[in-house]
Amino acid sequence: MQIKALPALEDNYIWLIEKDQDIIVVDPGESDDLLKYLNTNGLNLKAVLLTHFHEDHVGGLDSLLASQKQEVAVYGPVELEERVDYVVREGDHFTINQCEYKVIKTAGHSEEHVSYLMDSHLFCGDALFSAGCGRVFTNDYQAQFETIQKIKALPDTTKIYAGHEYTLTNLAFALTVEPNNQVLMKEQKHVKDIRSKGIPSLPSTVEREKQINLFLQVRSLTEFIQLRKARDQF
Ligand SMILES: [Zn+2]
C-alpha cells in the first residue's frame, strides 16, 4: 500500500491511498489533476472519505463521481448527509480493500468533523495540522480541545495526514509565542529546506507533533483558547 499527497487548490492536500490498481481518495477539494492522475495510472476508484463539509475538501466530489462508471462508496459525517452513501460517526468501523478504517469524531473546526484511522495512519482533515490546529469556526473550543486530546492519545508512531500545508506559517506563529524554542527553530529550518524542494511537510507523526505543536502542549482549555485566538490574529 502507498499513500500519496496530491496538492490541490492553494495549499490543500488530497490524500491518495493506493493498493495495486485500487485507490481511495480523501477530501477531493477539486478534481482536475485528480482525474488526470486516475486516468494516466489506470486506477480504479473504490471509495471517497470526507472529513467535513468545507468546499476546499468536497468541491471536486461531484465531477469525480460523474467521471466514474463503477460504484464508488462515499463516506462522510452527518453534515454531508445528502452527499454521501454512508454517514459515519464516532466509533464506526468499515473495511475497504481489506483495510479497516476507524472513525473518530474530531469536532471544533466544524460541528461534525471526523477523522479516519487506518492502522497507524490518521487522515484528520482540518482537525490538526503540523505545528497547528484548525480554526474553531464553531466557537466550540471545548470540542476542539477534546479533539486534540484524542489525537494526542494515539500511539506516538501514528502518522498525521492533515488537509493543508500550513506548517511554515504555524511554526512562524509558534516562534512568536516561544521565540527561544530551539526545537521549533530547528524544525523551521528543516521544513523550509524540504518545502523549497517542493516536498510536503506531511505526514507528520504524533511524536513529532508533541515536540513542535504548541496546541498539543497546552494544559488547560483556557490556555488553548488564548493560543488559538492569538493564532487567528497572526
Ligand atoms: Zn475546513
From TrEMBL:
Ranges that cross the membrane: none
Species assigned in the record: Facklamia miroungae
Record bears the keyword Metal-binding: yes
Binding site for Zn(2+) 2: D56, H57, D126, H164
Family, per entry: Belongs to the metallo-beta-lactamase superfamily. Glyoxalase II family.
Catalytic activity line of the entry: an S-(2-hydroxyacyl)glutathione + H2O = a 2-hydroxy carboxylate + glutathione + H(+)
Classification via SMART domains: Lactamase_B
NCBIfam families: GSH_gloB
UniProt KW keywords: Hydrolase, Metal-binding, Zinc
Textual note on the cofactor: Binds 2 Zn(2+) ions per subunit.
UniProt function note: Thiolesterase that catalyzes the hydrolysis of S-D-lactoyl-glutathione to form glutathione and D-lactic acid.
Residues annotated for Zn(2+) 1 binding in this entry: H52, H54, H109, D126
BP GO terms, sorted: methylglyoxal catabolic process to D-lactate via S-lactoyl-glutathione
Name this polypeptide is given: Hydroxyacylglutathione hydrolase
Top-level lineage group: Bacteria
Subunit structure: Monomer.
Annotated InterPro entries: Clx_II_MBL, Glyoxalase_II_hydrolase, HAGH_C, Hydroxyacylglutathione_Hdrlase, Metallo-B-lactamas, RibonucZ/Hydroxyglut_hydro
Enzyme class, first EC level, given as a word: hydrolase
Pathway: Secondary metabolite metabolism; methylglyoxal degradation; (R)-lactate from methylglyoxal: step 2/2
Cofactors that this protein relies on: Zn(2+)
Record domain Metallo-beta-lactamase: where: 11-164
EC number(s) recorded for this UniProt protein: 3.1.2.6
GO MF term set: hydroxyacylglutathione hydrolase activity; metal ion binding
Keyword Protein biosynthesis listed: no
